[in-house]
Specification:
The chain is globular. The longest helix has 22 residues. α4 links the parallel β5 and β6. The protein is an alpha/beta fold. The strands form three sheets. A seven-stranded parallel beta sheet has the order 3-2-1-4-5-6-10, with helices on both faces. A three-stranded mixed beta sheet has the order 7-9-11. It has a two-stranded parallel sheet with strand order 8-12. It starts with a strand and ends in a 6-residue tail after the last helix. The protein has a domain of 229 residues: Rossmann fold, CATH 3.40.50.720.
Length: 340
């Protein structure tokens, strides 16, 4: 099998490339000139296609001769000022990939969306610990006013519409909060790094669904033959409140767990200050991606999902979250992000 992977320098893409090569696949991946390729630098058999999602010719070169395309690339940011760039990357970039895949005659595209494109915090209670959301609870989650969620939902729906109106087979996967090794940037692993450095003193009252990156990658590969055209698949595992995930992180890496929940008024005030700083000083590069009013509000929302469909149809595994934390932590230590 020969595959083209976009977003190969990210957490999902890097682990996917390694898993495909292990299985004997021929892999080529789209890499920006400044991209960090540490996740697969030790794999010389991986062919690098220099370009990005705005460069349709580079995407066509990547798709050429491939049977499968894994579209993992996206712009992930919670800062609203980045909306134009997010639109270009997440929406127009996805269209470029779909057009190129159609032209190249690939057998199937695996489009990586997000659980943020599944409905949650709905008026009738979907997404709570007692009523976790599923694939039939559709977004967009416009109430959040977070452009990342909107652009990812729109690119997901573009992919679904494309498979209805064109002769292109697309399967959509919706990963939850992913933890694991080869988090080069780092992305979701920042919570582990910050905990290890003693920076996490408290938590917000909401929660999330967490999963090992290896389980995500395995399900994506299974989707090549087992996924149903045009279907969504939630790739998640454990629904945990933030106090629970930080307690697990603390237990694995041997630090003190945070002991109290931050009162909403204090968090909201800090988020408002972060948003104000971005609006006032954005011209000098101040973009409070992790601390703004919208991200703080999300910290108090239950963000829970049911992965039963992917477990049935894609054999999605449920590796203990403690293993995901340990694997990520060990990789950060081995690669000098942290000192044990």
């Amino acid at each position: 099998m020969k595959a083209f992977v976009t977003g190969g320098t990210g957490l999902v893409g890097g682990n996917l490339i390694r898993a495909l090569v292990t299985r004997g696949w021929e892999v080529q991946t789209l890499v920006r000139r400044t991209g960090k390729t540490a996740a697969f630098d030790d794999l010389p058999e991986v062919k690098r296609i220099e370009g990005d999602l705005s460069d349709i010719e580079s995407i066509k070169r990547g798709c050429s001769g491939c049977e499968i395309v894994f579209h993992c690339a996206a712009m992930v940011t919670m800062w609203a000022a980045n909306v134009n760039r997010m639109w270009q990357v997440n929406m127009h970039g996805t269209r470029n990939v779909l057009d190129a895949a159609l032209t190249a005659g690939v057998r199937r595209v695996i489009h990586v969306s997000t659980v943020d494109a599944i409905g949650f915090n709905t008026p009738d209670g979907w997404g709570t610990i007692d009523k976790p959301s599923h694939e039939e609870i559709r977004g967009p989650n416009n109430w959040a006013r977070i452009p990342y969620m909107t652009t990812k939902w729109m690119s997901q729906e573009l992919a679904r519409d494309f498979t209805r109106t064109h002769d292109l087979d697309v399967v959509i996967v919706n990963p939850a909060y992913i933890i694991g090794p080869y988090d080069v940037k780092p992305s979701s692993g920042r919570m582990i790094i910050e905990a290890a450095r003693g920076m996490v003193k408290a938590y917000t009252g909401g929660g999330n669904n967490f999963i090992h990156v290896a389980d995500v990658v395995e399900a994506m590969i299974n989707a090549v033959d087992r996924g149903r055209r045009g279907e969504l698949y939630i790739l998640g595992n454990a629904n945990l409140f933030y106090r629970e995930i930080f307690a697990k992180i603390a237990g694995v890496i041997g630090v003190a767990a945070p002991k109290f929940e931050i009162p909403k008024p204090i968090s909201y005030a800090a988020g408002a200050l972060g948003s104000a700083a971005g609006m006032l000083f954005g011209r000098w590069g101040v973009t409070p991606d992790t601390l703004n009013y919208r991200t703080v509000k999300m910290g108090y929302i239950q963000h829970f999902f049911d992965p039963a469909k992917a477990r049935r149809e894609l054999s999605l595994q449920a590796t203990p979250i403690e293993v995901a934390i340990e694997d990520a932590y060990r990789w950060f230590v081995d690669n000098k992000y942290l000192v044990r």
